[in-house]
Write a structure and sequence with these properties.
The complex is a heterodimer of chains A (490) and B (184).
Chain A (H helix, E strand, L loop, with lengths): L3 E8 L13 E7 L12 H14 L3 E6 L3 H15 L4 E13 L2 E4 L17 E2 H9 L4 E9 L3 H10 L6 E2 L15 E5 L16 H9 L7 H15 L7 E5 L33 H18 L2 H10 L6 H19 L10 H10 L11 H4 L5 H6 L4 H13 L13 H13 L10 H10 L1 H10 L8 H8 L1 H16 L1
Helix pairs in contact in A: 4-18, 5-6, 7-8, 8-9, 13-16
Chain B lengths: L8 E3 L19 H8 L6 H6 L21 E4 L12 H14 L9 E6 L8 H20 L6 E7 L16 E6 L5
Parallel strand pairs in B: 1-2, 3-4
Antiparallel strand pairs in B: 2-5, 3-5
The chains are: A alpha/beta (490), B alpha/beta (184).
Amino acid sequence: MTKLVVFLATMAAALWAGGEALAKRVALVIGNSAYQNAPALRNPANDAAAMSAKFESLGFETIEGVDLDYDATRAIMRDFARAARDAEIVTIFYAGHGIAVDGVNYIVPVDASLGDPVDWEFQVFSVDEFMRLVRYSSGASLIFLDACRDNPLATVLAAQMGNGTRSIGTRGLARVDVDSDGVGMAIAFATSPGEVAQDGEGRNSPFTAALLNHIGTPNADITEIMSRVTGEVYEATGRSQRPWVNASLTGPVVLNRVEGLTGAGAADGVAAPSGDAAAADPDASIDLQKFMFEAATASNDPADFGAYLDMFPNGVFAQLARNALKRIEAGEAQVAGLAPDGGAAPGAAARSDLTRTLTQPLSLAVTPALRAVASGEAIETGLALDRDQRRAVQIRLNVSGHDVGGADGAFGPRTRAGISAWQAANGLIATGYLNAVQLQLLTANTEAAYRGYIASRPKPASGGGTSRRNQTDPIGAFIGGVAAGLLLGK
Amino acid sequence: MRSVLKTAVLAGVALGLGVSDGTAQTLLPGVDSIVRALAPEAAGPMVRSIAGAGTLPFTAEQPIPAGFDFPVFSFQVGFDAGSHVLTTEGMTALRTIAAALLDGDLAGSRFQVGAHVIQGSGLNAMPVSARRAAVVAEHLAVFYGISSNRLVPVGYGNTKPLDVMVPDSPANERIEFINVDALR
């Protein structure tokens, strides 16, 4: 069973600045396990119970519902909306089946059948509705969506809807963009959009387990919590599931403020797996900070400064550590110093700097000249990429953290979104289409990871076979679903 | 007919054809020997005799006819087979070329970038070679700041194989940097 966990965090303009531990907090927690028209899910009820307890321990008034049908979902949403109106922080956690149609994500009540191409929309709730609910509150809002990806109901619906006028993600939810109307907002998928997330071997999904570990970290900002959750999920899944965060927060949001620890990020889940247990003695924390920072200063090793910052992102030496890292990076950049800018011949100095790097693996820099080269559909068409080359591009996007799903050699919306994300991450205009030099940048700078990926596969790229593609290709799965539906319908 | 270009230093940069073993050995000579091969002084007697005469029936933008001994550095740049998409091996070789082109001894020189391909199955040699030459020049300009005024891309198609006995030999697929200062 694969599972998608989506985390959405929306922050209203008036962020909870901390201090008032008595501020009203409301959490809505839903776990749907017992589906009537689909196999039951193992974990959502467990996930919901654990998250309810966690939210309550953090001072949330919790409204919990398990195995809700359509009417019960509607009722609990109404209760929640009322309670949330005057809350300072509101949270929604949903575990169960989800479905994406035309890029809109829906949660699926336990009585949904989705067998009707018209009626299905009246059996589900869009995530947008949940996002509207949290906007009744003027405070900070967090939404966690934990939705099973390997969704038989979606396949049924895909079969009913027939041809491609609507896009149905049978294997996952669609990415959600944060709106930017001045309201701070963060959105994180537990895995990259369209990618397979795991249900996990234990009682909870990897994402929920990580969330339980870290959400109570004292004095930690929600973005820091999410980065810890991201790291833990990534490691816990053998680096197969990489959470995805989209944030435009306007300020810090602290769920568990502990007086006396102010200014010092508490020890994280590495030292104290429960997170909560990290409410350490502040004096001990200062001593540890001092020790770590002095050790880093002595070694002048970026890794040591990084270790300090990981542990104490808001620590008393944090700014000094960041300054030191900047200095070290600047020094290294001077040594590496390739990529002379502009058209003028940079001369002998550039040559000798470049010569020094010739024994290193190739790493291309994003130059102003690169940013100036236009990209677009016609330009990419001019590259005349064949299927194998497109497959390689998709793998390279995947290994660079821009998940485009299975490498099928066809550039669909997910690949375009992945190219856009990669472009944005490199300071390039996000057109979704590559030009020659962008392809060179992508190729050179993903070479090691690409080789690693190719080497880790049982067969080379061209020998992957159809079973592999069927396994990971949502388009293939969708077409397959339609074909099966037609056959059954006759 | 063998190329009579004077200093055809042929470097066996492994052709990176898509997914290879990832341990391609770069046999490219050092920067200094590339600089020496491409320095204006490396021109042969014929080019030296006509240097500055300005009476040649061709320009730096045109294929250079056989018999002219311009300074040249020839090597096999890795492209995906039949394509003008550079491999990482190809780009790694170009990094060394870039270091040579940025050397003070070559800083004032202009180079023709000549791309030679073989007539593979269904491959239209001339346009592919022209695009490969342009891609090499663009790569050097964009990533290493080597002015495009110094690089003149020219596609040779399969008109000048090194090994005329085996026209489809991979050895015939190459990029030649030619110092064309004498054509000013």
